[in-house]
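Thread title: Can someone regenerate the structure for this chain?

I was given the following input by a collaborator and told the matching structure tokens would be attached. They weren't. Posting the sequence so someone can regenerate them.
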Amino acid sequence: MIDHAHDLACVRDATERLLNAVAQLDNASLAESSRLPGWSRGHVLAHLARNADALVNVLEGRPMYASAEARDADIDDGAARPLETQLADLRESAERFRAAGDAPADWTRTVELRNGVTDDAARVPFRRWGEVELHHVDLGIGYDLEDLPAEFLERETDFLTRRFSGNPDVPATRVTDGTHEWTTGRPADKPEITVTGTPADLLGWLAGRRDGSALTTDGEALPKLPPL
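Best answer:
Regenerated them for you:
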């Protein structure tokens, strides 16, 4: 059972960590490349602010974005803003998301995200938590996958293995950190391959943040995952 109130609290904690870290930057560092190809740190921050507003739209029954083109344009337009403006936008958009999450609502309802994807409303706070945590890492400012909360690492790994589950292009795969295990990929009576690693390295591979070179397999090549 998803505890949306718990996840909303985790979003607030993650957002505060992000804001405190970004406040230590300067305008020049915002223009530098992030870990995401083609995006500066300013692009990442603009995306995070607009994603908060997009998820408010989702919770309030509006389209997540007006269009893919409008989404991309908003990120590009916001990328070059100075640090003070970026921080204010992050704080204000986070507050709008907090207010939407705190409003009385039926959290069992189905909501629509991008590209026709639907989900339970109760899962939206966790999706926002993932955006904040992973894009904090993407900034490349000293917060890495190993710094992510253990609960988030486990739950995001579960989320991503479910996302690839049933994909015919991914071999039936057992994923384990030595304590927890998940299955993903195409249906099969038993896994074709087992992938083992630390929680951070497994998540990095599943989320496209690491190449998987730190992982071990049982003699088979590491599966190539489709883009998220």
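The radius of gyration is 18 Å.
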